[in-house]
Amino acid sequence: MIRILLIEDDETISFGITAALKRKGYMCTACSTVKAGKQAVSDEFQLILLDLNLPDGSGYDFCRWVKERFKTPIIFLTVRDDVRDITKGLDMGADDYVTKPFHIEVLESRMKAVLRRVPEEKQNLLSCGDICLDKDKMQVSINGDEVELTALEYRLLCVLLENKGRTLPRNLILDKLWDAEGNFVNDNTLTVTVKRLRKKLSGTELIVTIRGIGYRMEDKA
Fold first, then answer.
1. Cα(21)–Cα(13) distance, integer angstroms
2. Phi and psi of 149, rounded to 5°?
3. Nearest by Cα to 109 from 62, 78, 79, 75
4. Which residue has better confidence, 106 or 185?
5. I want to staple 42 with a disulfide (CB 3.0 to 4.6 A). Which of 99, 144, 198, 218 is the partner?
6. pLDDT value at position 180?
7. Where are the domains of the chain?
8. pTM score of the predicted model
9. Measured distance CA(24)–CA(70) in Å, rounded
10. pLDDT: is 104 or 130 the higher one?
11. Euclidean distance between CA atoms 160 and 170, whole angstroms
């Protein structure tokens, strides 16, 4: 599921965009200030929708701050349609510029165009809730804070995230966890590893036990 971070201080516009994108299958997190946006942003988001005029700062400043730390694409949403404003936003790294008012279908079309240009390495980022797994770096983080996992815990989390929303029988998980050296991972080891993984992920409820069958990783509403 594509995760969107929306930073918009107008409650009506924010609610409308969030509701419309959720109906279309996106996962949208909304913030109303620069401060809240900085606290929320992380590698788990595939796209940022950013208003220019915010109560505690400029969208330009937030865009610059994000581009210094993340590779997440940004689309400006604003009533300011002066060519100098548009040029300034694009020059500092914004990926598109949509002026208000706009139709949600137009916004989604522009979003899809930007997402098609996202580098392939972004596809190696797996996420669920606040958890993000970077397959290239072999790193796991919660809200941007790195979590240290053992090799077995990492492989288990990777299997669950790659099959997010799907119930995985225990025997299927055990087959996938059989390591390259042929060391057998037994049923008890799986139970203990799930318990330890949950603890390291702050007791997350995102790993759901399906009694008598196995486990499923799923986003909570």
1. 12
2. -125, 150
3. 75
4. 106
5. 144
6. 44
7. 3-118, 122-217
8. 0.57
9. 26
10. 104
11. 11
Of 201, 199, 193, 164, nearest in space to 177 by CA? 193
- Residue 203: Cβ within 10 Å count: 8
Instruction: Output the DSSP codes for the chain.
Output: --EEEEE---HHHHHHHHHHHHHTT-EEEEESSHHHHHHH--TT-SEEEEESEETTEEHHHHHHHHHTT----EEEEES---HHHHHHHHHTT-SEEEESS--HHHHHHHHHHHHHTS-GGGGGEEEETTEEEETTTTEEEETTEEE---HHHHHHHHHHHHTTTS-EEHHHHHHHH--TT-----HHHHHHHHHHHHHHTTS-SSEEEETTTEEEE----
Return the structure tokens found at 75: 């689309």
According to DSSP, the residues that pair with 28 across neighbouring strands are 4
Q: Which residue has the tokens 């080891």?
A: 189
| Token pair of 150 as six digits | 């053992």
Q: Indicate the range of 12-26, 29-43, 117-131 predicted with least confidence.
A: 117-131
Cβ-Cβ contacts under 8 Å for 113 (sequence gap 6 or more): 96
Interstrand relation of 131-134 and 139-142 (parallel, antiparallel or unpaired): antiparallel
User: Phi and psi dihedrals of 13, rounded to 5?
Assistant: -65, -45
- Work out the number of other CB atoms within 10 angstroms of the CB of residue 93: 13
Which tokens belong to 15? 């609610």
